[in-house]
Design goal:
By secondary structure, this protein is α+β, with helices and mostly antiparallel strands. The protein is about 30% helix and about 20% strand. It contains 7 helices and 12 strands. β2 and β3 form a beta hairpin. It is elongated.
C-alpha cells in the first residue's frame, strides 16, 4: 500500500513540475486578451537618439548638386564641373563607387566634424533635429535653396548573449528592432533559458546606464517601454538552474584527487574481495 502511495505521489509531483515547465516556455501568455483600445494607445516607435560613438551617414542634396558637393564628405567638383568622389585607396586619383561612403563618428563630446561648417553638437538629438540644424546652417549663408538632408545610423545594433542558440551582434538595417526580433535573429532562446528574467542593459545619451528585467512570458511585455530597442542595447538571457548546474565545472586539482581516490577505492575493494575468497 505504501509503495502504491509513493508511486502516485511521484506521478502527481512530476505532473505539476511538467505543467510549470510548460507554462514558463511560451511567450506573451494570453496576449490576445489585451483590449484593442489599450494596444491602440501604445506610442509610435520613437526616433533613435544620437549618442557619442554613433556612426552616421549624412547626405546633403539639392537641385544644384555642384553647390552642395563641398558639404558631402568625400565629394568634390572637378575641373570639368562634374561632381566626383575621393578615392583614398587609389593614388591615381580615379574614383570608384566603393569610395563613395564616408561616415561621421560622433565624438565623446557629442560632436561631428562637418565639412566647412566645422563642429556640430548632435548628441541627444534625433535625426529630424539634426537635419533641421544642418539646413539652417547651410541656407541662406552658403546655399540659395534649403537642401535636403538624409541621415542614417550605420551602427544600429544590439548584442544578445547568454542562453540563446546563436549569441552575437544583431544589426537593424531599418533602424528599428524590438526584443523579439533580436531574439529571433539570435536563433531564439535555448529551451533552458529563463524567459521570466531577461535583462536589458541600456546606455543613455548622457552616458548613464540602466538595467531592466523583462518577463517574456507576460503579455504586458507588449506595453513595456523596453519592448522597442535602442542602438547598442545588450540583452542577457539567464540560464535556468538545470543549465547552470550542467555548466558547473570542478577544479582540475579536485577532479584529479577524486579520480585517484576512486582508483584507490577500487583497488581496495578488489583486495578485500580476493581476501574474502581465500578464506572461504
Amino acid at each position: 500500500m505504501n509503495n502504491i502511495f509513493k508511486t502516485v505521489a511521484c506521478a502527481v509531483t512530476l505532473f505539476f513540475i511538467s505543467c510549470t515547465a510548460q507554462k514558463n516556455v511560451p511567450y506573451m501568455v494570453e496576449a490576445e486578451t489585451i483590449p484593442t483600445e489599450v494596444l491602440a494607445q501604445i506610442p509610435a516607435v520613437a526616433e533613435p537618439i544620437v549618442m557619442p560613438g554613433d556612426l552616421l551617414n549624412i547626405e546633403v542634396s539639392a537641385t544644384n548638386m555642384k553647390a552642395v558637393a563641398p558639404f558631402n564628405k568625400g565629394r568634390y567638383v572637378d575641373m570639368n564641373g562634374e561632381v566626383k568622389e575621393y578615392n583614398q585607396n587609389n593614388q591615381t586619383g580615379k574614383v570608384s563607387p566603393e569610395s563613395s561612403t564616408q561616415y561621421y563618428l560622433v565624438s565623446k563630446d557629442g560632436d561631428i566634424d562637418f565639412p566647412i561648417l566645422g563642429k556640430l553638437h548632435v548628441a541627444g538629438m534625433n535625426k529630424a533635429a539634426i537635419e533641421t540644424l544642418i539646413q539652417s546652417e547651410l541656407c541662406p549663408k552658403y546655399l540659395k535653396e534649403t537642401p535636403s538632408v538624409d541621415i542614417r545610423f550605420m551602427n544600429f545594433r544590439v548584442t544578445v548573449f547568454g542562453a540563446v542558440k546563436t549569441p552575437g551582434t544583431v544589426i537593424a538595417e531599418n533602424e528599428r528592432m524590438n526584443i523579439f526580433e533580436a531574439l529571433a535573429r539570435s536563433g531564439d532562446l535555448d529551451i533552458k533559458g529563463r524567459r521570466d528574467n531577461v535583462k536589458l542593459i541600456r546606455t543613455n545619451a548622457d552616458g548613464s546606464r540602466q538595467i531592466a528585467v523583462l518577463n517574456l512570458n507576460d503579455k504586458n511585455i507588449l506595453l513595456s517601454p523596453y519592448y522597442n530597442l535602442q542602438q547598442n542595447d545588450m540583452i542577457y538571457v539567464e540560464p535556468n538552474k538545470s543549465m547552470a548546474q550542467n555548466a558547473w565545472q570542478i577544479n582540475p586539482a579536485v577532479g584529479a584527487a577524486i579520480t585517484i581516490i576512486g582508483g584507490l577505492s577500487s583497488i581496495a575493494s578488489l583486495i578485500i574481495g580476493i581476501v574474502s575468497l581465500s578464506r572461504m
